[in-house]
Amino acid sequence: MDKHVTAPITAEAARNLHAGDYVYISGTVYVARDAAHKRFMEVLDRGEELPFPIEDAAIYYMGPSPAREGRPIGSAGPTTASRMDKYAPRLLDLGQRAMIGKGKRTQEVVDAIIRNQAVYFAAVGGAGALLSKCIKKSETVCYEDLGAEAVLKLEVEDFPVIVVIDCKGNNLYETAVKEFQQK
Question: pTM value?
Answer without folding.
Answer: 0.94
